[in-house]
Amino acid sequence: MPVARHDGLNARLTTALRFTALALLAALAFLIVCQLAVATWLARENTWREALWARGETHWRWDFSQASNIVGKGSSGLANASFKQDGLHAIAPEDGAIGLSLALRGERIDVPAIGQVTLTLETSGAARVVLLVQRGATQPVWVETRIEAGSHELELTPAPTGDAPTESLQLQIYTTAGGRVVLHRLALHPVSHAPPKTIEATDAPTPERLLAFRDHVRLQSPSAPVIAPAPWQWPAQTLARGLPSASWLPWFSLVAALIAVAFALHRRLHAAEASSPRRAMLELCVALLPCAVLLLAGWPAREANFVAMLAFVCAGVSLFLWPVPQPTWRWFGNAIAWRDAMLATILIALLLTPLSWLPDAAATPSRSPERFWRYPLWALLQQAMLLIAIAPRCLLIARSHAPIAALLAGLAFALLHLPNFALMLATAAGGTLWAMLGFRHRALLPLATSHAILGLWLTHIAPAWLLRSAEVGGRFLMGE
């Protein structure tokens, strides 16, 4: 064998080994970070709930100042209602009945654990207040009382309705037609101040299994805290205690992201391109690390936080704005670019097909027709992020070594999908493939089409517990 051919074979073998080792190490790191993020979020949620329980309170409470407190479907008599800072203001319809389906955000209520119901409201006339629990087709009365006109702070003892959790809660108020009703607050209080016994997810080796176990427990015992398996409990508790949990953390991340945007604009205006591996690495870290820190700190805490979401968006925008040497990109590409993209799409789709054989005991995620026109637009935006903002920097970091640069781009792209471990693996593989094809053909639309097809195929065949409807960040944790 000629020496040149032998050296070339050794170089390719060395590249393949480095590529494989880096991919395996990254997959292990992804698993650790995702599991820690989920375990920390559960630890922080449990600590918050236990503190409420010790004060004789629960997280089941509604202040009626926002429409998100009720579910439109299942509510009635709200044609003349408005949400204000002090609560829900409503005018009773002709039949005098106002019915509210209270938002449980995917949970159930542990009815036997509730010992008192407090309700603050105002009525312009006499009224009957009824609280119903729903179990299947039955709606037994849980609380019922009559009140006169005026302001009331009611403390009510619920009637026994069985031991099973309730699937939904209905608040009904019957008064005279045209009567004014103002609902301020409703809260459920526990029978005992001692928090319920925790349940350990002993068989949950992945974040998806841990969250699926938590969801299963919540269906049977909604008030029971769920903790991660033993190897993850100590680091999760340490992170929950050590990382900031205050409300200023998302604001701090947003300010940091806005500063990054400002610096990026300044450098773009002065045409100062990132021309060194060190600067390219710094820019990627500035955009990606705040997202990971927020998730490891247990944010968003209990519901989607607008400030945290805005911080993520600004961090991504900064990547687009930092100037970086760019190749000439074509929107449509040529026939060869489309051929390679479609061949790769067919191959990956076939490799993903065995996911449909996994058991899926949970309800399947929503697959509304709107996904088929919304997701291609989202795929185009993500592909632009990958090929225009991330891949050129990875090419600098890898010193123009295309295979390693493509893998780095795929791994950086996967970090944007924290803490959905299964989706991170899929996007790391897909991102690497798309980056390699992008380096070769410089065409955006063929790869965006591939992204859209594979994304829709993956969410169609994968079980609900694995991807949790392909959500990321807080929505993946909360399963909403």
Written overview of the protein:
With 480 residues, the chain is an alpha+beta fold. The chain is 51% helix and 16% strand. It has helices at 3-54, 207-220, 230-242, 248-269, 277-296, 306-321, 335-352, 371-397, 402-415, 421-441, 445-461, 464-467, 473-478; strands spanning 61-62, 70-76, 82-84, 87-91, 97-102, 114-123, 127-134, 141-147, 150-156, 168-174, 180-190, 199-200, 226-227. The strands form three sheets. Strands 1, 3, 4, 6, 9 and 11 form a six-stranded antiparallel beta sheet that branches. A five-stranded antiparallel beta sheet has the order 2-5-10-7-8, with no helix packed on it. The protein starts with a helix and ends with a helix. The model is unreliable at 362-366 (pLDDT under 50).
Which properties best describe this structure?
480 residues, alpha+beta, six-stranded antiparallel sheet, five-stranded antiparallel sheet, 13 helices, elongated
